């Protein structure tokens, strides 16, 4: 169990990136959702020993992740947003090199681990190709391969699917979901579907605070029957809706502007009940937080 208590971080410019964040995360896939600037990367960097918080603690089965950085790094797999690679090196050479750095010094054992990871991440065929020539999806899968070296107990994946095309994204998500059940995997993203498809638990972060935590399906149950939609054709009509109701999102549907609102009772006024989904949960909680 990963146990996080009262984490706060203010950057030197005065930005309060994390405000008293407390959270328990059990093994399995945990989704951290939030818009850009919410504080997700700051949170992930602290857990990955790359940044110190101002206050607060994080422990994994008794290990202090903030104080004991060397021990933490040995059980950590980290895949940052932009995974930098040495462009001229091949995947197999790079993995071998990283494996040595991680302390896997026995040649036979290293070969077995590296070859296993190349198969698991579907990079076997391109293992000798220079990493600089990899597509975005291949780079991310390589990122997972390196994060899995040395059997991590905590895997941190920061915004992994941004910039991937749908096929690459699918492959990547399938790979993530195949990672062992005994490992804590934290996936930060602003893409709601990533969480819906993969995670049994999730939290939503906004302006450095956790504003919701729970199971995606239960969170959707909380807004079921309270989401309504209507197509508006003019800006005036839109303004009227915004003044009278809690608008949670606006979408273009076949060229028409559809507004979704949250209302515990039937709003009338041409609204139809909509089938609530995780995106409604996300936007409802974000807009409610901004309104307060
Ligand atoms: P997210 O990952 O959710 O987009 P971040 O943790 O990157 O959020 O950023 C949270 C806030 O902290 C933002 O307002 C961002 O501009 C600010 N921030 C991030 N890194 C730094 C830094 N090194 N120095 C100053 N401000 C920063």
Radius of gyration equals 22 Å
For this structure, what is the CATH class of the largest domain?
A: Alpha Beta
Estimate what percentage of residues fall within beta strands. Answer: 25-35%
Helix content: 25-40%
Total beta strands:
14
Large-scale geometry = globular
Biggest pleated sheet:
6 strands, mixed
Structural class: alpha/beta
The CATH architecture category of the largest domain equals 3-Layer(aba) Sandwich
Query: How many helical elements?
Result: 10
String of helices and strands: EEEHEEHEHHHEHEHEEHEHEEEH
State the fourth-level CATH superfamily of the largest domain: P-loop containing nucleotide triphosphate hydrolases
At CATH level 3, the topology of the largest domain is Rossmann fold
| Total domains | 2
Report mean pLDDT, rounded to a whole number: 92
In short:
With 292 residues, the protein is α/β, with parallel strands linked by helices. The protein is built from 10 helices and 14 strands. It folds into 2 domains: 215 residues, Rossmann fold (3-Layer(aba) Sandwich); 51 residues.
Structural summary, described in words:
- There is one protein chain.
- With 292 residues, the protein is an alpha/beta fold.
- The chain folds into two domains: 215 residues, P-loop containing nucleotide triphosphate hydrolases (Rossmann fold, 3-Layer(aba) Sandwich), CATH 3.40.50.300; 51 residues.
- The protein has ten helices and 14 strands.
- The strands form three sheets. It has a six-stranded mixed β-sheet, with helices on both faces. A four-stranded antiparallel β-sheet has the order 2-1-4-5.
- α3 packs across α4, α5 runs parallel beside α6 and α8 packs across α10.
- The longest helix has 14 residues.
- It is globular, with a radius of gyration of 22 Å.
- It binds adenosine-5'-diphosphate.
- Adenosine-5'-diphosphate (ADP) binds next to α1.
